[in-house]
Amino acid sequence: MFNSDCFNINEKGNLTIGGYDTTEIAAEFGTPVYVMDEETVRKNCRLYKQSIDNYYGGNGLPLYASKALSCKEMCRIAASEGLGLDVVSGGELYTAMEAGFPADKIYFHGNSKTREEIEYAVDCKIGCFVVDNIDELILLNKICDEKGTKQDIMLRLKPGIDAHTHDFIRTGQIDSKFGFAIETGEADQAVKKALEYKNLNLVGVHCHIGSQIFEVEPFELAAQVMINFMADMKEKYHVVLSRLNLGGGFGIKYIPENKPIKYDKYMEKVSETVRKACEERGLDLPYILLEPGRSLVGEAGITLYRICSVKTIPGVRTYVLTDGGMGDNPRYALYQAEYDAVIANKASEERTVKVTIGGRYCESGDLIQENLMIQQPETGDLLAVFGTGAYNYSMASNYNRVPRPPIVMITDGKPRVIVRRETYADIVNCDI
Ligand SMILES: *Cc1c(COP(=O)(O)O)cnc(C)c1O
């Protein structure tokens, strides 16, 4: 009935998460509130880890793409499950370091890393930079030279795979701001340059072909292209690229129509492709990295909102207006992301009313979803939006000076705050 089996309906007809009544969470912690089920997050982590063990002899590592939800407790959970971490900014790196994340398992992404961020990451002794462009390559080498260190790097490549996803979140093809193109010879030149730099140690290549992908084929295609490139570079420059990072982008169930693949299927199929391609090209099997973000945390989270008003415009539509909106979830406003929602205190009732869910922010586009069937809404009801564990808190803003909601995690059937609610004092904290 719901997108994850951490949700249920109790005898009072209320929605539960991890066995805990959502109306009690709202009463204890206020609204809006993000709620995560820890068990579901950990299960997802294990599925990726086990898939590498089962299908690839353990010769690899899933990295949690922390941009999906970066906070100290998520870093601790990823660390305790034995995952590595993908960070894309100094802030995400700082979060990881504060959480005690093992630095050698951190990979630093990003297409516009600043000098300060690069210096900070080198000082943290992170495991690997994923270098996006020539300017970064030059700067990183210079910084490592100044600091007298040598840094492991991978190169981010564009394998030219179109993973049939929304233009805004498509990143594999040539017209992308991320990475070096293979087709144009740009990637080849980057390898050549990287090998000339004595403070850089080129260990492998990376690609990330998009997001919310439901097919395995694009990943297999990408793996094939990448292995061919690695073999070409071995022939041309006698360099052994021992790590292959295939990125993330594994689709999750936002709405009933979404049909995600069980996450271990990716590794099952991709490892076959990799084995075959390596055999054909005479390469040793590379160490494989995966970078799931959304699929580790997305389905494990909901957002609870209080309905502040219901506005029916005859012959037009019914607005259900909540105490949150684009400040805590900008994804519908940004790219019409799909979400499912129910009235948490009426979860067992029929969904009979078509509504548009709007927020409290001063923008007409401040919507969470349009034309969604939900239970008969009334002011004071509790609205639960599913699939908000990824790219909600991490994309939240203080627009209209609204404090960001807390994250409550259900652990062993009990709620605990892992990120506290912002206060008005937090809002003016940086004001002079
Ligand atoms: C965003 C991103 C990911 C994670 O993508 P998901 O769709 O959340 O799995 C992984 N790797 C890179 C380089 C990314 O930019």
TrEMBL record:
Q: Give the main EC class.
A: lyase
Q: Which InterPro entries does its entry note?
A: Ala_racemase/Decarboxylase_C, DAP_deCOOHase_LysA, De-COase2_N, Orn/DAP/Arg_de-COase, PLP-binding_barrel
Q: Which GO terms describe its biological process?
A: lysine biosynthetic process via diaminopimelate
Q: Which residues form the active site?
A: 362
Residues bearing N6-(pyridoxal phosphate)lysine are 67
Q: Signal peptide: which range, if any?
A: none
The cofactor(s) it depends on are:
pyridoxal 5'-phosphate
Q: Which sites bind substrate?
A: 294, 331, 335, 363, 391
- The answer, when asked if Amino-acid biosynthesis is one of the entry's keywords, is yes
List UniProt keywords, sorted A-Z. Amino-acid biosynthesis, Decarboxylase, Lyase, Lysine biosynthesis, Pyridoxal phosphate
The record's listing under Pfam families reads: Orn_Arg_deC_N (PF02784)
Q: Which SUPFAM superfamilies match?
A: Alanine racemase C-terminal domain-like, PLP-binding barrel
Which pathway is it part of? Amino-acid biosynthesis; L-lysine biosynthesis via DAP pathway; L-lysine from DL-2,6-diaminopimelate: step 1/1
Q: Where does pyridoxal 5'-phosphate bind?
A: 249, 291-294, 391
| The EC number(s) this enzyme carries | 4.1.1.20
Q: Orn/DAP/Arg decarboxylase 2 N-terminal domain spans which residues?
A: 40-297
What reaction does this enzyme carry out catalytically?
meso-2,6-diaminopimelate + H(+) = L-lysine + CO2
Task: Describe the family membership recorded for this protein in Swiss-Prot or TrEMBL.
Answer: Belongs to the Orn/Lys/Arg decarboxylase class-II family. LysA subfamily.
Task: List the PANTHER family hit by this protein, alphabetically.
Answer: DIAMINOPIMELATE DECARBOXYLASE (PTHR43727), GROUP IV DECARBOXYLASE (PTHR43727:SF2)
The record's note on quaternary structure and interaction partners says: Homodimer.
**Function, in words:** Specifically catalyzes the decarboxylation of meso-diaminopimelate (meso-DAP) to L-lysine.
Spell out the NCBIfam families in the cross-references.
lysA
Q: What is this protein called?
A: Diaminopimelate decarboxylase
Gene transcribed to yield this protein: lysA
